[in-house]
Amino acid sequence: MAAAQSGDREALDRLLRRHQDRIHAVCRRLAGNDADGLDAAQEALIAIAKGLPRFDRRSRFSTWAYRVATNAALDELRRRQRRPEPGLADIDNRGGRRGAAQPGPELAEAVAASIDIDSALAGLPEDFRIPVVLRDVAGFDYAGIAEVLDLAPGTVRSRISRGRARLAEALNPEPRNHHHPGQRPTHEP
What we know:
mainly alpha; Rna Polymerase Sigma Factor, Chain: A; 8 helices
């Protein structure tokens, strides 16, 4: 970290490579798709490299880096809102994007699940989506998320709990037949 901060390009490269996959995972889940996630991750890595000389070490490097990544993903979402949606000219005759690899049938279930998760995450308010992604995708602990988002740890726990509950509802929209303990469930015809 110190060598990278003082201008050692090899140290900077090692530092960025160490965090690159998790930064991309965070950006991908916050942005909601691969292309915007890659763009956000690239912007985050550039911002980290440029901002490293000014990093004051009041927080851990990873905390600072994921704050930068979160902001890059949110910036990408704002840019996306200003861009037009892709048209038919962007789709090839097999139904895929031009230049995109055509996945085999063994990936269909994983792709469908990923799309469902992306859609459910996109439906969450940012206040819930960001802490859930930092916890469940990046693996941050509650204290780290609190530091990244400048929130109280109790607020982080609450937002993650509420965000996960909303995700569960979105991923399993079937109405549940609730009953109290000791009471027999009712079955509707």
